[in-house]
Amino acid sequence: MKLRTAVTMVETDYGWVLLDEDTGGFFSLNPSGVLAVRTMLDGGGVDEAVAAITGEYAVDAGTARADVDELLDELDAAKLVTR
Q: 2 or 14, which is more confident?
């Protein structure tokens, strides 16, 4: 996964957001979302993102996978990433 060229990930006082410089839109990420996105931006896939989340948070793999899949669907729908 990669961020589109016009999209940057920025830490703010309120958490992390993906900013789309083309549209001015933004997408907020919670801490587990940041972990998943960073894992995938670093070359990992869904399995690695799930492993990172279950290693950091008290959540089972099935729930983590569903959350990562949902996050990817939302990022795709917002046209923030390419896969």
A: 2
Which residue carries 């099935």 as its tokens? Answer: 62
Domain count, the chain: 1
Compute CA distances 5 → 9, 30, 46, whole Å.
11, 22, 22
The CA angle 77-48-15, to the nearest 5 degrees, is 55
Rounded Cα distance between 50 and 7, Å, is 23
Bridge partners of 82, per DSSP, are 2
Instruction: Compute CA 4 distance to the chain's CA centroid, rounded to the nearest angstrom.
Output: 13
Kindly tell me the burial class for residue 17, based on how many C-beta atoms sit within 10 Å of its own C-beta (0-12, 13-18, 19 or more): middle
The pLDDT tens digits of the residues spanning 46-60 come to 999 999 999 999 999
CATH of the domain at 7: 1.10.10.1150
